[in-house]
């Protein structure tokens, strides 16, 4: 068996349970060790509860870019165990954040829907992506000019509880707008389940007992 990421032949499978809920995945120890759990608390106005699994570090960036940018579809297997808790969800709608149809034509699949299919999670594709661009490349002011990112698909039934699924949160603008349009369509509670988020680290820890009068910065 080979490591799903670096293609190295595996002599011994690392217990991926360390990172991913007691399941084993074909990853070498070196690749597995580069996934860092997201440990900060995070909330987003307009959403009830946001779960984030990993730091969006270099490894996650490479994996997501290979998966979504180049269509390396087999990488979806990596995240299958994360979705286990959602497999038995029957009351809430599991709602993937969609990619724009132009992107889907280019790579050949809907990335978040495919993650859910591979994980065998039943989902409701309630949303359609309207904005065909990369929000993360825009400034805050420019993002505010984009008034429609997603819309609710016509003729669908929106349940009271929706769980949005996405790969990366940066500013949260897409999730917030998705939550807003679902609320307009009747949803009462909206959570999000996201693979990763960039972590801001401070360069130093400020000692709270420091003598402020002597502080020079
Ligand atoms: Zn590897």
UniProtKB/TrEMBL annotation:
Domain Phosphoribosyltransferase residue range list: 104-209
Transmembrane residue ranges: none
The organism's place on the tree of life at top rank: Bacteria
Pfam families: Pribosyltran (PF00156)
Similarity annotation: Belongs to the ComF/GntX family.
Protein name: ComF family protein
Species assigned in the record: Savagea faecisuis
């Amino acid at each position: 068996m080979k490591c799903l990421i670096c293609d190295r032949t595996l002599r011994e499978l690392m217990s991926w349970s360390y990172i991913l809920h007691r399941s084993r995945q074909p990853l070498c120890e070196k690749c597995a060790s580069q996934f860092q759990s997201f440990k900060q608390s995070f909330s987003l106005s307009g959403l009830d509860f946001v779960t984030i699994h990993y730091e969006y570090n270099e490894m996650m960036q490479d994996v997501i870019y290979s998966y979504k940018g180049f269509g390396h579809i087999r990488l979806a297997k990596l995240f299958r165990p994360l979705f286990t808790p959602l497999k038995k969800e029957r009351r809430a709608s599991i709602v993937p954040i969609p990619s724009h149809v132009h992107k889907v034509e280019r790579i050949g699949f809907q990335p978040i829907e495919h993650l859910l299919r591979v994980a065998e999670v039943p989902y409701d594709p309630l949303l359609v992506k309207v904005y065909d661009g990369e929000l993360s490349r825009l400034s805050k002011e420019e993002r505010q000019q984009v008034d429609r990112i997603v819309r609710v698909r016509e003729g669908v039934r929106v349940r009271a509880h929706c769980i949005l699924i996405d790969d990366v949160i940066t500013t949260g603008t897409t999730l917030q707008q998705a939550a807003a349009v679902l609320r307009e369509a009747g949803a009462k509670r909206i959570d999000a389940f996201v693979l990763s988020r960039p972590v801001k680290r401070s360069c130093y820890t400020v000692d709270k007992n420091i003598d402020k009068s002597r502080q020079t910065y």
